[in-house]
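We append the chain.
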Amino acid sequence: QVQLVESGGGLVQAGGSLRLSCAASGIILSRNAMGWYRQAPGKEREYVAGIGKRGNTYYADSVKGRFTCSRDNGENMLYLQMNSLKPEDTAMYYCHIMDTGSWGQGTQVTVSS
């Protein structure tokens, strides 16, 4: 059974940084394409960043240059380093395995102005 657990969210001032983590069990992350999504209140869930099986990374235009998606194959972890945070980055952030359709429970990120 695949399980994803996100952590690292919190309250931060604009311009600050957070590092989100996604711990996986029941699956080997390095064999799957994965992504980070976010959903703000009243809005649809949107793609933020992702990493392919070969380690290539992809970013939404809104976070390009500020966020970095990475994977630790040894620890079976996925990360999202978020720098220069803006109030519009406030949302629940979810880890997602694209190949299996699995989702984590999410971690809340709140950026104050």
Remarks:
- The radius of gyration is 13 Å.
- The mean pLDDT is 96.
- The chain is about 0% helix and 50% strand.
- The first strand starts at residue 3 and ends at 7.
